[in-house]
Each structure stands twice: as C-alpha cells, then as structure tokens.
C-alpha cells in the first residue's frame, strides 16, 4: 500500500484519508491530536508514495521544527522595502543650485 500525501490537509481530512487507506496516524507534536480539527499538516513520515504494509503508522506534524522556519510556504520576505516612504536627496555642500526652504 502506498502512503497518501497528507501535507497541506487539515487534521480532520488527514485522519479520514489515512483511515480510508487502513493506516494509523500519530502526531508527536500534538498530544490532543484526536481533538485537532483545522490545523494543517506541514510534514509527514513516511513520505507520500512510500510502500508500507496495511495498519502501518504514519507520523504527521502541524508545526515546523526548530530551525525549519516556514518561509517556503509564503513569499520570500527579504529584501524588505525601505521604510518611511519617499525620501528626498540632500543637497551637496557648496552646490551652486542649492535649494532653500522658505
């Protein structure tokens, strides 16, 4: 039996998908996994498509581990746009066309 792709599914959908294939689900980062409904699966083991016997355990995680971040899920945030809106260029010292403020 092949392991289905569970990443990206809500907890309730991941449980139903695994149950329909004769697999058991375990979430090491959620002791209250049976109550979890709307959180999304971010990792799974074994990987989707792996061959496993029926009644095997599939592990899923809902939070990223230490150092994993999660930046790949969203658009990159770097480089950041400059803050403060438009900025005017300062006059050079000794400029013949110095702009004076009135």
Description of the molecule:
- With 102 residues, the chain is mostly loops.
- The chain has one helix and three strands.
- The protein has one helix at 11-20; strands at residues 24-26, 43-45, 57-61.
- The chain has a three-stranded mixed beta sheet with strand order 1-3-2, covered by helices on one side.
- The longest helix has 10 residues, at 11-20.
Largest sheet, spatial ordering of strands? 1-3-2
- The number of distinct helices, counting runs of at least 4 residues, comes to 1
- The whole-angstrom Rg is 26 Å
Query: Helical residue percent?
Result: under 10%
**How many strand elements?**
3
Overall geometry comes to rod-shaped
The H-and-E topology, N to C, reads as: HEEE
Characterize the largest beta sheet: strand count, sense, and whether it forms a barrel. 3 strands, mixed
Please indicate the percent range of residues in DSSP E strands (runs of 2 or more): 5-15%
Look at the helices and sheets and give the structural class. little secondary structure
Low-confidence stretches: none
Alpha carbon gap, first and last residue: 80 Å
Mean pLDDT reading: 80
Organism: Streptomyces hyaluromycini
Domain PASTA: 2-62
Region (Disordered): 69-102
Pfam families: PASTA
Write a brief caption for the model.
10% of the residues lie in helices and 11% in strands. The chain has 102 residues and is mostly loops.
């Amino acid at each position: 039996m092949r392991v289905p792709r569970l990443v990206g599914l809500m907890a309730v959908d991941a449980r139903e998908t695994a149950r329909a294939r004769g697999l058991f689900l375990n979430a090491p980062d959620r002791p209250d996994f049976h109550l979890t409904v709307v959180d999304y699966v971010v990792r799974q083991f074994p990987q989707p498509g792996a061959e496993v016997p029926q009644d095997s355990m599939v592990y899923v995680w809902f939070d990223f581990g230490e150092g994993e971040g999660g930046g790949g899920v969203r658009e990159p945030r770097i480089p950041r746009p400059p803050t403060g809106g438009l900025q005017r260029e300062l006059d050079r010292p000794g400029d013949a066309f110095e702009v004076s403020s009135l």
